[in-house]
TrEMBL record:
The keyword Cell membrane does not apply. It comes from the Bacteria. The keyword Cell membrane does not apply. This is Integral membrane protein. Keywords: Membrane, Transmembrane, Transmembrane helix. It comes from Streptomyces lomondensis. The chain crosses the membrane at residues 33-52, 98-115, 127-144, 150-167, 215-235, 287-306, 313-334, 340-357, 369-387. The lineage of its organism: Bacteria, Bacillati, Actinomycetota, Actinomycetes, Kitasatosporales.
Length: 497
């Protein structure tokens, strides 16, 4: 009995020592990731700054949950995920700086959690460098504190792919299965079609290898995230097929269209390149884009030599399918569209960089390390330069919208009111007005409805200076605000009792 009791005590002590060692190891791994997330959050607040006003797409998402402005038209491609994400702040406060700080903190926390799912799949140093590569891109820093979906699709992709790899390696890991479902749900919650493209390789692999539990978790997550979008399709868009058709039409018609050159042009800081004309950015701005697939290929070779091909090949395959529609299926570009692909490429690329630094022997190792360090420093400098120009340009344009809204108030166009015409949606948000369009992607009213509204509310039409107004506004008095012709509908005389 004494020997049995001693054996039990020994096993308990060993288990406690193992648990303590594992906890200490996890803490050592987590600290660099937490530091990276903290630097990313601070960089957003310093470089992008919370005073940056809301952009066009942000206004659409935020206005759905605010109480101080009317909801903007919500077109077929959009999903409600971003609106729900910002609701804890936007539902009760109109403060843009507060919303920016909230999103910056949330995006930093999300990056930390996403990178943690890759623990054990790659060394900590690879995860830190990979996370830093993704976080230091100007497009990541710019959109991290914004109410936009693409960064969150990227985070969902990292979580879902990382947990899928863990679930394959550890069949009994229930937490990994929950992570697969959560990442897929987050992607589908933000952009259902993007979630499908990202997860195609995972679905195919799970079916081919009969990994039924990861497959079930993946399908359940996609379904959970997409259900609101599907329900809304039947309630407000005439069905799922019609909504998909409308979404394709609004995006210029999905099909074989090469947009690689458009994406290159957008790398200079253009938030939306539609139509995408003009000259290419300086070669230093686009150089990293050409180096990225080369390093990804090297990362694949490194993984093959180390006999861990799957954990590198799978994220690369998901990155390729995530990028496919935005490189070859639409006729315009926005740099944020490729954020999920950049996030998935970052870890294999970081693995390749560490290989370049650590493999050379003797006197060549310091040379290789110096070359990689110089290259990364130059890349960071370019990203910050593009970010500064992008922030300055967007700050000016959003201040112009706010100034125009103030001038409209002085002309008597005050809430409740309606704006139509050029940039009516963003200016309407800043003015506290509804926005209406009789044609185009945001068509939501008719000329007859606008005239009826003008009988009871202030209504104004906006057009570029010298532009031709629509028939319903031609007789309205015209005022010049900056580079806009503003036609304000005459106020109807009050009715006599």
């Amino acid at each position: 009995m004494a020997d049995g009791a001693n054996a039990i005590l020994v096993r308990m002590r060993r288990r406690e020592q193992t648990d303590a060692t594992g906890t200490a190891r996890r803490r050592r791994v987590d600290r660099p990731l937490a530091a990276l997330a903290g630097v990313f959050t601070l960089a957003q607040l310093v470089l992008v700054r919370p005073v940056l006003g809301l952009g066009w797409d942000e206004i659409v998402y935020v206005s759905q949950v605010t109480s101080h402005t009317p909801a903007a038209f919500f077109s077929a491609p959009r999903s409600r995920g971003v609106s729900l994400l910002v609701a804890p702040i936007a539902s009760w406060s109109s403060s843009t700086p507060l919303l920016r700080v909230y999103l910056a903190l949330l995006s930093g926390l999300a990056l930390y959690l996403a990178l943690r799912t890759w623990r054990g799949l790659f060394p900590t140093r690879v995860l830190v460098v990979g996370g830093a590569l993704f976080a230091s891109l100007w497009v990541t820093l710019f959109y991290g504190p914004q109410a936009m979906p693409n960064y969150w699709v990227a985070i969902g992709a990292l979580i879902s792919v990382g947990c899928f790899l863990r679930a394959r390696a550890e069949r009994s890991a229930r937490a990994a299965l929950w992570g697969v479902a959560a990442g897929a749900a987050l992607m589908a919650w933000m952009r259902p079609t993007d979630a499908v493209y990202v997860t195609v390789p995972l679905l195919v692999l799970a079916l081919a290898r009969r990994h039924w539990r990861p497959l079930l978790a993946l399908v359940a997550g996609l379904a959970a995230g997409a259900v609101p979008w599907v329900i809304e399709a039947y309630l407000g868009h005439g069905g799922l097929g019609q909504r998909l058709s409308d979404a394709s039409r609004i995006q210029g018609g999905l099909g074989w269209q090469i947009a690689v050159d458009d994406q290159l042009r957008s790398l200079g800081g253009r938030a939306l390149c539609r139509p995408c004309t003009g000259t290419m950015p300086h070669p230093l701005v686009t150089l990293w884009w050409f180096v990225l697939p080369v390093l990804a290929g090297l990362g694949l070779l490194v993984a093959a030599r180390a006999r861990r091909l799957g954990r590198t090949l799978i994220p690369l395959a998901c990155a390729a399918t995530a990028a496919l529609p935005y490189l070859f299926m639409i006729g315009y570009a926005a740099p944020r569209f490729l954020q999920p692909a950049y996030a998935l490429l970052a870890i294999p690329v970081a693995d390749a960089l560490w290989y370049l630094v650590k493999t050379p022997r003797g006197k060549w190792r310091p040379v290789a390390a110096a070359l990689v360090a110089v290259g990364l420093a130059g890349h960071l400098a370019v990203q910050i330069a593009v970010l500064e120009r992008t922030v300055a340009r967007n700050t000016d344009s959003r201040r112009d919208w706010d100034r125009t809204a103030g001038e409209l108030h002085r002309l008597g166009v005050r809430p409740p009111c309606l704006l139509t015409g050029h940039e009516a949606l963003p200016i309407g948000y800043y003015a506290g007005c509804s926005s209406g369009a009789t044609a185009g992607h945001n068509e939501n009213t008719t000329a007859a409805d606008i005239l009826r509204t003008a009988e009871r509310l202030p209504v104004a039409h906006l057009a570029p200076a010298g532009g031709t107004p629509p028939g319903y506004a031609r007789a309205w008095p015209v005022h010049r605000i900056s580079d806009l012709d503003v036609r304000v509908a005459p106020q109807a005389p009050p009715r006599t009792p």
